[in-house]
Design a protein that fits this description.
The protein has seven helices and no strands. It is mainly α.
Length: 204
């Protein structure tokens, strides 16, 4: 079906140019649907090898983060059993716990972003900005494979958030259910998909 669509698409386009009636309009809509379904001209395409490389990086990073989050949660639970009499020691341990949970939150949110990227790969929509719908630069995807926005839209978002913070607003990114990370991750590691800082966590 795909090959058939590719072969007849040029003839259909020429037919549309010569037709000004409703038949031409119907065929135009049909060709637009083919473009979306079969990656014909006009639909965002990306090199399969490039996508597979990023997909593997995403899965490896996800596996690593899952282990890190579980380790930090165990550390947090273990620290809850200390018996200290010195107020300074208690305060120090509470600060340490807060740091551990803050790091775990960041790692859990990154896992959510990775899951979204893998889902987009499966749907064939990876590399498309969720705001403007345009193609995200390859270099940006290499730096942050789970990125959702193109650079232009991301900068606009950060400007809006900056204005929000300036006015005393509070910005919260999603919510995390930590109970999910205590479960056996066999299901998480069996993903069979084909898909904030300046530091690239994927670099060797």
């Amino acid at each position: 079906m795909v090959e058939f669509g590719i072969k007849i698409a040029p003839f259909i386009n020429r037919f549309i140019c010569n037709q000004g009636n409703s038949i031409g309009i119907d065929i135009l809509l049909l060709t637009q649907e083919w473009k979306c379904r079969f990656n014909l001209k006009g639909y965002i395409k990306m090199d399969r090898k490039f996508i597979n490389q990023l997909r593997n990086q995403l899965k490896d990073r996800r596996h690593h983060l899952l282990k890190e989050v579980k380790l930090r949660l165990r550390e947090f639970k273990d620290s809850g059993g200390y018996r200290l009499t010195d107020t300074a020691d208690i305060a120090s341990n509470l600060v340490d716990d807060e740091i551990v949970m803050s790091i775990a939150q960041g790692e859990a949110r990154e896992i959510e972003e990775i899951d979204n990227a893998l889902s987009q790969i499966k749907k064939g929509k990876y590399g498309v900005c969720e705001c403007c719908g345009k193609k995200i630069n390859k270099q940006r995807l290499v730096a942050i494979p789970f990125v959702r926005l193109c650079l232009k839209c991301k900068e606009a978002e950060e400007r809006d958030e900056g204005a929000q913070d300036h006015n005393g607003g509070y910005y919260r990114v999603g919510s995390v259910d930590y109970d999910e990370f205590e479960k056996d991750d066999e299901k998480s590691d069996s993903i069979k998909y084909i898909e904030k800082s300046d530091i690239n966590p994927f670099a060797n």
